């Protein structure tokens, strides 16, 4: 606190000397007194003595005072730029303090040094020409123009998929090759991009894709169409096994004839109405009324 009080006293005297007609003969002594005080960055910030000296320098006409003021302000700027040394600190103390700071920085650097990452070994490679060719085939099925990153590289995914297929058959016979071709065709299918994106993103693992059936790999559109065809086949089979009733009240939408046969079958729950299946006896066209 005594240092701050001394600074404030000198500040007041300098401010009083800022007027043009004021006696500035003691200005140099006051500035030298400031230079001898152990001013720190905290004191410099609280008292704003730098602004006072700079303001006084602009109003002063004595060249020696102006030069001394500039040197004093320049010395204080070192505190603001990160040099926390006290003005007029002995050179020996400065060197010793610098050495200690360098040692501390080295210790901190060692503490903050990142730990070495564990070594990740790549997928086991193979020298089998057939397997290498199959891996290249799978890689080509995964590469697209709008390629995006996933949990692993395309090459790693293809290698793991081929390795999973080979692990199942233990050789490169026809079964192995057919499995590779089916994975290639489904991954390459432009109408089924979901399978490829799910595999690259990690939603489907290589081990899963290696054993998926054609139905499981199919696109949603293909699954819907397949279910529809299966249902129609079941309906046709049921219609063929049940003797129909001929009628001329129904008109075929295809040949426009009125020679039809219909059957009524309970395809839904018991409280729902029966489904009427109609077949045209002229052209074989089939349809149903729900």
From TrEMBL:
Pfam families linked: Med26 (PF08711), TFIIS_M (PF07500), Zn_ribbon_TFIIS (PF01096)
Domain TFIIS N-terminal: 1-83
Bias (Basic and acidic residues): 89-115
Major location (coarse): nucleus
All residue ranges annotated as the TFIIS-type domain in the record: 248-288
Coiled-coil ranges from the UniProt annotation: 7-34
Region of interest (Disordered), ranges: 83-124
Keyword match Phosphoprotein: no
Subcellular location: Nucleus
SMART domains: TFS2M (SM00510), TFS2N (SM00509), ZnF_C2C2 (SM00440)
GO MF entry, a single one: zinc ion binding
Record GO biological process: transcription elongation by RNA polymerase II
Keyword field contains Protein biosynthesis: yes
Domain TFIIS central: 130-245
InterPro entries noted in UniProt: TF_IIS-typ (IPR035100), TFIIS/CRSP70_N_sub (IPR003617), TFIIS/LEDGF_dom_sf (IPR035441), TFIIS_cen_dom (IPR003618), TFIIS_cen_dom_sf (IPR036575), TFIIS_N (IPR017923), TFSII (IPR006289), Znf_TFIIS (IPR001222)
Signal sequence bounds: none
Keywords: Coiled coil, DNA-binding, Elongation factor, Metal-binding, Nucleus, Protein biosynthesis, Transcription, Transcription regulation, Zinc, Zinc-finger
GO cellular component, one term: nucleus
Similarity section: Belongs to the TFS-II family.
Known function: Necessary for efficient RNA polymerase II transcription elongation past template-encoded arresting sites. The arresting sites in DNA have the property of trapping a certain fraction of elongating RNA polymerases that pass through, resulting in locked ternary complexes. Cleavage of the nascent transcript by S-II allows the resumption of elongation from the new 3'-terminus.
NCBIfam families from the UniProt entry: TFSII
Protein name as annotated: Transcription elongation factor
Naturally occurring in which organism (per UniProt): Sipha flava (yellow sugarcane aphid)
Taxonomic path: Eukaryota, Metazoa, Ecdysozoa, Arthropoda, Hexapoda
Gene name tied to this protein: LOC112693147
